Amino acid sequence: MKQKVTVVGAGNVGATVAMRVAEKELADVVLIDVLEGVPAGKALDLAEAAPIECHDATITGVTNDYAKAEGSDIVVITAGIPRKPGMSRDDLLSTNAKIMKSVVTEIKKAAPDTILIIVSNPLDAMCHVAYEVSGFDKKRVIGMAGVLDSARFRAFIAMELKVSVENTHASVLGAHGDTMVPLPRYSHVAGIPITELLSQERIDAIVERTRNGGGEIVSLLKTGSAYYAPASAAVEMVGAILKDKKKILPCVAFLQGEYGIKNLFIGVPVKLGAAGVEEIIEIKLTSEENAALNKSAQAVQGLVDDLKRLG
After folding, report:
1. What is the mean pLDDT of residues 19-47?
2. Mind listing the domains of the chain with CATH numbers?
3. 177's torsion region: left (phi>0), alpha (psi -120 to 50) or beta?
4. Is 176 annotated as catalytic?
5. What's the pTM?
């Protein structure tokens, strides 16, 4: 039986996720959106590219027809609105929380055994909404953040050292945003720690660029945000789950005491396999790194508290 992935949100991120899942022949894809005709149009466009890209995945696009998600192994949720000029953080949080509640309520009916990968922002907070609304086991609600942030870190290390990105490996913990915690000690090039290859000044500059990775792209695009790398990050997670790879990836997971953090979604290394988050990997942190992670957790807790206040 062919595997199936539903992508909710047919914008740039969602459509690119659908394209890459299909082209890698990971699964058949259902693309769902609220806009009439948009998911069907993008699905048809992708289907017409299939003879050229040489894949036989089926791509279906529908408007608000969640019944089509039935039997999905994974549902990737990208739905939500970006922050607009004049919009407060509370407005964004409240609006996207309502969208997330609506989407997850429908997905729970159509695909009660699925695994949720959350991409919508503010990501860590949206994981909490999805977890509470779905009632799923914590293993089956996962946020895409660390894979993207560590990919950016890896790309910047490769640019700095003029080496292949395939040789670079990096680790990023914490929330998706300004308080993320890149870990130079656990980042290396072909096994050589970057602390042996770069000055502290250059490492600090790369860390700061990683933290502002999304903002840098927004400032260049003017009217949009990143979508190629976020989509790739989500699809790497999809592949690790569908292929039961037991791959260690930095993802947003629900902690219940790990790293001294309780009842909170935060980015940490996890083992991804067929069951979703099969293990949370605890690594030793310095007091400085631990303080940075706690600060990041406090920022997420603030968003969760705001969600409760906003109702």
Report:
1. 98
2. 4-143 (3.40.50.720), 146-310 (3.90.110.10)
3. left
4. yes
5. 0.96
